[in-house]
Specification:
Oligomer: single chain
Helix content: 25-40%
Order of helices and strands: EEEEEEEEEEHEEHHHH
Distance between the termini: 118 Å
Pathway: Protein modification; protein glycosylation
Radius of gyration: 47 Å
Strand order of the largest sheet: 2-1-4-10-9
Membrane topology: Multi-pass membrane protein
Number of helices: 5
Family: Belongs to the SWP1 family.
CATH class of the largest domain: Mainly Beta
Largest sheet: 5 strands, antiparallel
GO cellular component, one term: oligosaccharyltransferase complex
GO molecular function: transferase activity
């Protein structure tokens, strides 16, 4: 037979397994509610798999369960104070319904019954600690991304200065080439020995310069990289064959 004890004024009350108490049980701010019971399977005391004291707010339907500390002998105990209760129970305008739930595996018959109403008497001088509302995930306002402007070309004057410097270096390059003894007579032999390789190699060099020009003027990086990869592969393969032809002439003593 369950017993209920209020340790504040040391009052006892015997509960019935089939009938709820006619009067509400009061729980003040300094009170401690202790519920003692012995669980049995038939006439034999036995520890159940689950034993709870379940409190239910009759207005909102909110439930909170408190686990009994049950020994092997079936003796169970649960202690309760206002600090253990959700803040919704502390602000409820009606008494909280208290039920006992006991269940086990196997063929044992489960038990669930209302045993009393809990009247929570708050001290109005003590502020109620209400936690912040939990985060609720929902659709937010539409986000409009503002992208910064793409990179701009440098001023034309700078471009013209560097272009003039490159063009001005070409005569110097050809002059040094002639001074060091460049031999243009082998152009025909080179084209005759490996015409496709030499044509593709020099053509790929010119094409790569054209790609850089397009990237500078109008193309973006995604247009430039595939074209540069194709032209670079052609330059590598044709250049290898062209250099092999040059090596053959060098080994033959032709300079």
């Amino acid at each position: 037979m369950p017993n209920i004890r209020d340790s504040s004024n040391v009052s006892f009350c015997r509960l019935s397994p089939s009938t709820a108490l006619s009067k509400s049980v009061s729980l003040g701010g300094t009170d401690s509610l202790k519920l003692l019971l012995t669980t049995t399977d038939g006439k034999k005391a036995k520890r159940p798999h689950q034993a709870f004291l379940t409190l239910t707010d009759p207005t909102t339907g909110l439930e909170e369960s408190f686990i009994f500390n049950v020994k092997e002998s079936g003796k169970a105990k649960v202690d309760l104070t206002q600090k253990d209760l959700p803040h919704q129970f502390l602000t409820s305008s009606k008494p909280i319904s208290a039920s006992i739930v006991i269940a086990s595996f196997g063929a044992s018959e489960p038990y669930k019954s209302k045993v009393f109403d809990l009247d929570i008497a708050r001290d109005p001088n003590v502020p109620l600690a209400v936690p912040e509302k939990p985060v609720r995930y929902a659709a937010e306002q539409e986000i409009h991304h503002v992208f910064r402007e793409g990179p701009r070309s440098p001023p034309k004057i700078i471009t013209l200065v560097f272009a003039a410097a490159v063009l001005g270096a070409l005569p110097v390059l050809f002059g040094v080439w002639l001074t060091l003894g460049a031999n243009a007579d082998h152009v025909g032999k080179a084209l005759g020995g490996a015409p496709i390789s030499h044509a593709l190699f020099y053509g790929s060099v010119i094409a790569m310069e054209g790609i850089f020009f397009l990237y500078y003027t109008s193309w973006n990086l995604f247009q430039t990289l595939p074209a540069a990869a194709v032209v670079g592969a052609v330059a590598f393969l044709s250049g290898s064959r062209a250099l092999s032809e040059v090596q053959e002439r060098r080994l033959a003593g032709l300079r």
